[in-house]
Amino acid sequence: IGAAKLLVVVAIFLLTFYVISQVFEIKMDANLGHIFEKRYFSVKLHVVLTGKFCFISATKATKPPRYKCGISKACPEKHFAFKMASGAANVVGPKICVEDNVLMSGVKNNVGRGINVALVNGKTGEALDTKFFDMWGGDVAPFIEFLKSIQDGTIVLMGTYDDGATKLNEEARKLIAELGSTSITNLGFRDNWVFCGGKGIKTKSPFEQHIKNNKDTNKYEGWPEVVEMEGCIPQKQD
Q1: What is the mean pLDDT of residues 152-160?
Q2: What predicted TM-score, i.e. pTM, was given to this entire model?
Q3: CA distances (Å), origin 169, targets 94, 133, 199
Q4: In which broad location class does this protein mainly occur, judging by the first location in its UniProt entry (predicted)?
């Protein structure tokens, strides 16, 4: 009888321990997962019950990869990663990033109404210049002179903010078209537009997005939604 009672006690003890172990596993998974979620990794606890011992092991998930400028996938060798966005109405300025270097943004305080332009060395990916030209209340002449001064082999990135078209004339549009743009001829009042081309390009650029200002479809009152674009620019070869 004594031996039978001992077996019953042992069985109850093991059963209780097993149940507690399962509960412990669930609680720890939930709590630790929540705690470390914001640090981009989680910990899983695995409880293994044997006849004599309880083994606990932990597995850490690796941090998800981050690509330059936050683009969706890595660029191949001899390519420069870029990501850009037009302005949002007349409130938030455009943003231009190349090779993880934010060249223009509202935070950097170097953007403005009109067409925002960043120049990048086509061989090294180094930033050369950033400027914006007011195409609503400004003069197109300085913009034309700037476009004419761009050297061959230079990557040119442009994004509109508020209005980038009112003061554009035929000469300015032609110079931008020579950089590889196809939408510049149709760019109108308060359209949103981003473009990446190059001086001396032989074909039309594949990097261009354009949304027309349309009161029936505009996301903001008087302005269309923000237009974004990302990609990999081929490095200029000698």
Answers
A1: 98
A2: 0.74
A3: 22, 13, 20
A4: secreted
- Read off the tokens for 51: 């006849």
192-198 and 154-161 strand pairing: antiparallel
Residue 136: both structure tokens together? 């609503």
Q: Using CB atoms within 10 Å of the CB of residue 230, give its burial: 0 to 12 exposed, 13 to 18 middle, 19+ buried.
A: buried
pLDDT given for residue 29 in this prediction: 37
Beta-bridged to residue 208, according to DSSP, are 195
